[in-house]
UniProtKB/TrEMBL annotation:
It comes from the Eukaryota. Residues 1-258 form the Reverse transcriptase domain. Pfam families: RVT_1. This is Reverse transcriptase domain-containing protein. It comes from Punica granatum.
Length: 258
């Protein structure tokens, strides 16, 4: 039998530039890092974000209030309403939609931008949400569920699902002491996919509102084509707007608000 040498971290530089070499210091530093990552300051429940979630599914949502034995039961029912709740700009984790659709649209838009003549130009900005799952605020999740007309009883069940977990850090093959995260959703949890898509949909609402009041100037292919301000690929987002300092400021302001 072949013995494989376990890969271990022998030294680690902390944020102050000092090297850590003791095992006990390793564990403490790892716990402190992830505890800070999953700890969020309180966020006001009144976020003042626009709400474009369809209320059509509110009556069907009552089926989700029935006692559920696991997160999978909630997911299997919830996924049937995602197409009603999530705008066509988002194609990830929504049944019946395919990521290739947005890829084709993005290629066509970029190709059209290169062919444009005259003084009016457009820009495409790619935004990646850093550590998207880890930094998702629980109060923001609940606020999104309220905005999506999810029944209060189901809100409580989902809140319990995401907040009842404990976390350990596997460090050099050994588990550190556990701690309770205060934000974030679990990678690999089937419920996390849909919660994330619903929360990112709030950014789509902000963009949609700014387009409707003619603050954001989106791109259009052809005279009779559809106006397109953004395309979403889960946690990667493509933004389209007219090239100007004013439009850049508007895009930055909306991203900062989100």
């Amino acid at each position: 039998m072949m013995n494989r040498k376990r890969i271990q971290i022998e030294a680690l530089k902390n944020s102050n530039g000092d090297w850590i070499i003791e095992d006990e210091q390793f564990s403490r530093h790892a716990i402190d890092h992830f505890h800070e990552l999953f700890t969020e300051e309180s966020v006001s429940p009144n976020l003042g974000l626009p709400n474009y979630f369809s209320r059509a599914a509110i009556f069907d949502f009552q089926a989700l209030v029935r006692p559920a034995s696991s997160e999978e039961v909630i997911v299997n029912t919830l996924q049937g309403y995602m197409a009603e709740l999530v705008s066509p700009n988002q194609v990830s984790f929504v049944p019946g939609r395919h990521i290739q659709d947005n890829i084709v649209i993005a290629h066509e838009l970029v190709h059209s931008m290169h062919r444009m003549r005259g003084r009016k130009k457009f820009m495409a900005i790619k935004v990646g949400l850093e550590k998207a799952y880890d930094r998702l605020n629980w109060n923001f999740i609940v606020d999104t569920l309220v905005a999506a007309w999810v029944p209060e009883k189901l809100q409580v069940i989902i809140r319990d699902c995401i907040s009842s977990v404990g976390t350990n850090v596997l460090w050099n093959g050994n588990l550190t002491e556990g701690f309770k995260p205060r934000r974030g959703i679990r990678q690999g949890c089937p419920l996390s996919l849909y919660l994330f898509v619903l929360c990112v949909e709030r950014l789509s609402h902000l963009i949609r509102e700014s387009v409707e009041v003619e603050v954001w100037q989106p791109i259009r292919v052809g005279r009779n084509g559809q106006w397109i301000s953004h395309l979403m690929f889960a946690d990667d987002i493509l933004l389209f707007a007219k090239v100007s300092e004013n439009q850049i400021a508007i895009v930055c302001a909306i991203l900062d608000r989100f």
